[in-house]
Structures are given as C-alpha cells and as structure tokens.
Amino acid sequence: MTQMILKNVDREFETMINSMENIFQTAKINENPNNSRELVELSILSTKIINSAERLLETVFEMKQMAILNDDQSIINSIKEKISRYNEGKTKNDQILLQMKTEVSHLLYQLEETLYDPFDGISKSEEEKKKMENEKNEEN
At CA 138, angle to CA 137 and CA 140, rounded to 5? Predict the structure, then answer.
C-alpha cells in the first residue's frame, strides 16, 4: 500500500515537472503566445498541472487516513488511559460502598439493640428520641 502511494506521488510530481518544462519551452518568457496552437498547448499543460496537484492532494488525504487508522500506539495509549480512569472511579466507588456498608451495619446494630432489648426496648427508643431532640435543640 505504501509503495503504491509513493509511486503515485512520484508519477504526479514527474507529470507536474514535465508539464512545467513544456510550458517554459512553449512560451517564451515576457512574450505573448503568437498562435492558437501555443495557447492550446499551454492550456493543456496547465490542466495537467492542476490535475496532478489534485491527485497529490487526494494522495495526501489517503496518507493521513492511513496514518490515523494504523496508529496503533496512540489507540493503545488511549485505551490504557480510559482503563486507568475507570479503575480510579471503581476504587472510589468501592471506598464509598465500604463506608456506606459500615454505616448501615452500625445503624442496623443500634436498631436491633434498641428493638430487641427484652427489658426496656421501648423506653430506650424513647430516651434516644429525647436525646436526638435535645441535640437538635442544642444545634439550633
């Protein structure tokens, strides 16, 4: 693929150079073309140069596409970066979940202790309500 592109580039440059040489041979500098044949030749050679330049632009575009699509290292680096960001987020989420688990288990233990105390479960919960109300009043 690369050799084909290089051959195309070489061929187009040769076409442009040959056309420029023919233009210089056909037209004498600082002189206007004398006959219609010279005008036609100059027009044809100019068209060849323009066509070659357009094909070179297309070739450059193909080369850019090929470079982008075949740039495995940057794709791999991008994937590694995304994986590391994912792992960082996963670690943060795991820490948050662990903290929530600890808080929930502590609150569940307190709730079970309050509700299942055989002697004064109801009175303890009322006392805790009063404590919480006092704490709220102190904060305000």
Answer: 65
